[in-house]
Design brief:
The protein is an alpha/beta fold. About 60% of the residues lie in helices and about 5% in strands. α4 (about 90-95) links the parallel β4 (about 80-85) and β5. Bound molecules: fe (ii) ion (2 copies). The site of one fe (ii) ion has 5 residues, from loops.
């Protein structure tokens, strides 16, 4: 392990350099040595080391100047300063710039060996701690990823349950997610909010699991009374999701409850108006209706993009948030791309 630690020795007296080098080598290290501190500084511009052992009194640049310059390049570098005497003031200055230990001339071999061993084992344990922290960070990231994956799998399962009996198709759910995310991005919502909506949008009709098959799967037009029951799916969806602490399900609750509200206040279940309707609900309302219009349903053909866009624009400020309609129309190219991505996948998944 010791061989992995890199030592640099700087002293203008060759005898001292040779002595320190010899001791370090005996201890199993391969030190790099310099007689000129300026050359050492140059070396540090492109290299790093674990420990710098430097003399104080050298021509051209003293040990303090060298150490403080090297420390700005490599703040974690450890150091031993060699001084000729017990100069108290000098030691204080050296400690201020972060020197770790001192050696007094004439150098005692035994003392140098012990100080070197101490400081290198400290350096080694710092390195190990850092490596451990790094490893821990990777492990935590992996665990978080696994947790997120299982969370998305659970969300997916819930969405598939929601659409299982629903005559609407899997590709409808997917497109509504993508249209909603696109609108969230165009509205300037954060990436986190865009992602929340992407996973919450498929839950918009989850409340349909609480609607009787006779009504949900009725091939013809619903009677007024049946339609009133059908409308309950928004509140049922909200009730299913509202108590979850999971942010995706919380967003799903908002979407489920508000995706049939209309900007003019004539929607349901609460008859909310304009910005009283949560933005997520206003967004999903637009994506949901646009996709229903452009999709084939047992009771209708697929409308062309132009026909659907015309209706959306006609409903600007009525059914839909005018700002969202403008963004949607201005980005028709992206809408077409999303549509094309799921074309021909209209079988139930
Ligand atoms: Fe719905
Ligand atoms: Fe839908």
């Amino acid at each position: 392990m010791k061989n992995e630690l890199h030592l640099v020795i700087v002293d203008d007296e060759p005898v001292n350099v040779l002595l320190l080098e010899e001791i370090a080598k005996e201890m199993g290290h391969e030190p790099v040595a310099f007689f000129d501190p300026r050359e050492a500084l140059q070396w540090f511009e492109t290299h790093n080391a674990d420990l710098l052992i430097t003399d104080f009194n050298m021509p051209g640049m003293n040990g303090l100047e060298l150490l403080s310059s090297v420390k700005t390049l490599h703040p974690e570098l450890m150091s031993i300063m060699i001084t000729a005497s017990g100069d108290h003031e000098l030691k204080l200055q050296a400690l201020k710039i972060g020197v770790n230990d001192f050696l007094t001339k004439p150098i005692s071999v035994a003392e140098f060996q012990l100080r070197l061993e101490n400081i290198l084992s400290l350096r080694q344990s710092i390195k190990l701690q850092k490596a451990f922290a790094e490893e821990l960070k990777i492990e935590v990231a992996k665990a978080t990823q696994a947790l997120e994956k299982s969370q998305f799998e659970a969300l997916n399962t819930l969405s598939r349950t929601a659409e299982y009996k629903d005559p609407e198709t899997g590709s409808h759910i997917a497109r509504v997610s993508h249209y909603s995310k696109m609108l969230a991005e165009l509205c300037g919502l954060s990436e986190h909010e865009q992602e929340l909506l992407f996973y919450a949008a498929p839950l918009h009709d989850i409340g349909k699991v609480g609607i009787a098959d006779a009504i949900l799967l009725k091939p013809g037009k619903l009677s007024e009374e049946e339609f009133e029951i059908m409308k309950e799916h928004s509140t049922i969806g909200y009730n299913i999701l509202e108590n979850s602490a999971n942010p995706y399900l919380q967003a799903g609750a908002v979407v489920a409850e508000s995706h049939h509200e209309k900007y003019n206040g004539k929607g349901y279940p609460k008859g909310l108006k304009g910005e009283e309707i949560p933005l997520f609900g206003r967004i999903v309302a637009l994506g949901d209706v646009f996709d229903a219009l452009t999709s084939v349903r047992p009771y209708k053909r697929a409308w062309s993009f132009e026909e659907a866009m015309e209706l959306i624009q006609k409903e600007k400020g009525e059914h839909f948030d005018p700002r969202l309609v403008e963004l949607f129309v201005a980005n028709i190219g992206r809408v077409r791309e999303i549509y094309a991505q799921f074309e021909g996948m209209d079988e139930k998944c």
